[in-house]
Design brief:
Length: 515
């Protein structure tokens, strides 16, 4: 099969793009996909019917359908690590007994939980997805429950998140597949000390107040956590795709109740089935990914804004950043050959209307064009205010902006006074859902996952490894050893350090800025 950029289908797209006038006033046409749970509108993308048809042909020619099936069938599509990629199994427990067993254990544990404060310690995929879901589903939390996530190894994070918490009322969840992740284990040791300083050094304190989500039973036991309170998952669950595994199930079931966590699974499962079975021309994750490819590889737009018009989705942009940028930030294809086209994209965002008073100026009038995704809901999570002939509700006020901003970006406005000129031609898509619930939060989680995977499938890269983060970790270990040696000897070993790093590290250890 020809590589992405050498395929006849991509060459046809390039030829079509060269002759296409990028004018949304001319290209605008009602385009969308209707489903029972969401409406996806891409009328304001810089495409015509021919471009959409050619993109669909590109998807077919890439073998996308078979690649999706291979993922769902548990084939080892993560070739560099010889692993399956089966996060979809987490949402289909009746088909996978091992998943059903872990979920049953989570359900039983949640039912007997007596703690009101839950502190989840993890980093990366061990917290971004679960934190997004926790924020999105906060109105459904059990009475009196508080869930906080400690991720950053900066002690400020732990200190602020635990300030005011009563240790007697607190359960700490340590989330690490190997139980060796440096940042997570440092925070876990701090949590252990925090509990023991206040509740006593009896090992029973740790056994009662700390549990683990991990696969490393021996290390969990050595830490002092009862292995009976360890919840496992599998090597076919990648970190950024793990929110519906025990990584998310344990804290979310304790916070929301197991029934609400199960609704998250059902929402993700619904989108999984849509992705697996829907024709590509009506497949929302596939269309989303194809439009991303058009914008990245044909239009040259390397950044995307994710703009949820719901405060409950405040953590979705950060989760999407990791899913997209860790999955598809790759320099080589599946065969290890350098790619000669853009992969991945920079993703950022902020809930509307906050973003409108921050970075929308650049979206409207900046010299670079940034495609955007708008997400809105028909019903609010918190119905405040009353609609009258003279006033609108909070949610109606919010949604006026959801409807206005895509048109302002697309069609702009010209004025004789140049600084007021809005050029338009800024592409966007809109997702409209009924309301933000655990079900729709799970649906959006799966949309994010499958959209990123689809681009990787078509580009011919591995969206499921992340070796790029390993070098920084290795160098960090070397610096940790240098710091510990300095504590022992009073001298900094500068072997292998460049002059800049040596000076910065020495200043840090000296406790003062360089002279």
């Amino acid at each position: 099969m020809p590589s992405f950029e050498q395929s006849a289908e991509f060459k046809a797209l390039k030829h079509h793009r060269a002759g296409l006038a990028a004018d949304l006033k001319g290209l605008f046409a009602r385009r969308g996909v209707k489903t029972p749970h969401l409406y996806y509108d891409f009328s304001r993308q810089l495409v015509d019917e021919t471009a959409v048809t050619l993109l669909l042909r590109l998807a077919e020619a890439s073998g996308l359908r078979n690649k999706i099936k291979a993922m769902f069938n548990g084939e080892k599509i993560n070739a560099t690590e010889a692993r399956a990629v089966l996060h979809v199994a987490l949402r289909d427990p009746d088909r996978y007994p091992e998943v059903k067993e872990v979920l049953a254990k989570v359900k039983a544990f949640a039912a007997q939980n007596k703690f009101n404060n839950i502190v989840a310690i993890g980093i990366g995929g061990s917290y971004l997805g679960p934190e997004y879901l926790a924020e999105a589903c906060a109105p459904f939390a059990l009475p009196g429950k508080k869930l906080v996530f400690v991720a950053n190894v900066d002690g400020t994070d732990f200190a602020r998140k635990t300030a005011g918490l009563d240790p007697k009322e607190t359960l700490v969840i340590v989330i690490s597949k190997t139980f060796t992740t440096a940042e997570t284990m440092k925070n876990a040791e701090t949590a252990k000390a925090w509990l023991q300083e206040r509740l006593g050094s009896d090992p029973a304190v740790v056994k009662e107040h700390m549990i683990a989500v991990s696969t490393a039973e021996a290390k969990v036991k050595a830490f002092g956590i009862d292995p009976a309170n360890m919840f496992g998952f599998w090597d076919w669950v990648g970190g950024r795709y793990s929110a519906t595994s025990a990584v998310g199930a344990v804290p979310l079931a304790l916070y929301l109740g197991y029934d609400n966590f199960e609704q998250i699974l059902k929402g993700a499962y619904w989108l999984d089935q849509h992705y697996l079975h829907a024709a590509f021309e009506e497949n929302i994750p596939v269309l989303s990914a194809l439009l991303d490819i058009w914008n990245i590889n044909l239009m040259g737009y390397g950044t995307r804004a994710l703009l949820p018009y719901s405060q409950g989705l405040g953590k979705l942009p950060a989760h999407t950043q990791q899913v997209e940028m860790e999955s598809n930030g790759k320099l080589v294809d599946l065969e290890g050959k350098p790619v000669r086209f853009a992969t991945g994209e920079v993703v950022f965002g902020e809930p509307g209307t906050n973003g409108q008073h921050s970075f929308y100026q650049l979206l409207h009038q900046g010299t670079q064009i940034i495609p955007a995704d708008f997400i809105g809901f028909i019903k609010p999570q918190y119905p405040l205010g009353a609609a009258t002939a003279e006033s609108v509700t909070h949610h109606e006020e919010l949604m006026t902006n959801f409807f206005a901003q895509p048109d302002a970006l697309a069609f702009g406005k010209k004025d004789e006074y140049l600084p007021k000129n809005f050029p338009g031609n800024r592409p966007s898509s809109s997702l409209l859902l009924k309301e933000l619930t655990p079900f729709t939060a799970g649906l959006l989680l799966a949309w994010t996952e499958h959209r990123a995977a689809t681009k990787g499938f078509i580009w011919g890269i591995n969206s499921f490894d992340q070796f790029g983060v390993e070098l920084g970790k290795k160098l960090g270990v070397e610096h940790r050893n240098r710091i510990m040696e300095y504590h022992a000897t009073g001298k900094l070993d500068q072997t292998g350090l460049n002059q800049s790093t040596a000076e910065l590290l020495q200043a840090f250890l000296n406790g003062k800025l360089p002279n």
